[in-house]
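Encoded backbone
================
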Amino acid sequence: MNAPDIDKPSLLIIDMVKDTFDEKKRFPITPLAKKIIEPVKRMAEIFRNHEWPVVFATDAYKKEDFIFKGRMKPHSLAGTPGAEVIDELGKKDGDLWLPKPRLSAFCNTTLDRWLKERRVTLCAVAGITTNFCVLTTALDALCCDFKAVILEDCTMASTEKIHQQTLDIYRKSVLYPLLGVATSTDFIAELDAFE
């Protein structure tokens, strides 16, 4: 990302919820998603240490929601334990937990205003899934006038191939540097270089 010295980042952690990590549900993404728990947890700690905002945006659907009129089965229902952030990520009191009714963390939520009140200019997006909720959140961040970067080692899709193909589309996008893809290590190193 260009000009990181003027950017204030926020970490948006998408859909790291108990339903997705419940092995009894047999979601194809579960084993792959487990691989990003530690990188996401590490990024959350780095952001907290820098006093940059950390947001957990989680699916909070209703059983009769429009979103379930396709192939997707009801899951992560609002108010149920399955819609809560997984314990392994150690959500802290200072973090924002933002239940969301649709794919993007910006859709029908107060996230846009909340970030702007904190003078955030750059959204680092982590979580699942790369090709749906992570991507729509990153694109909506851009639509709300935030720069966005998808943290490639902190995101995952239902297959490695889908994950990589999605990222490859945006690696050389004409929207760069407003929208980019980076490893968490490279992203933090670039921000730290300008502190």
Q: What stands out?
A: The beta strands are 9-14, 54-59, 96-100, 122-128, 147-156, 179-182.
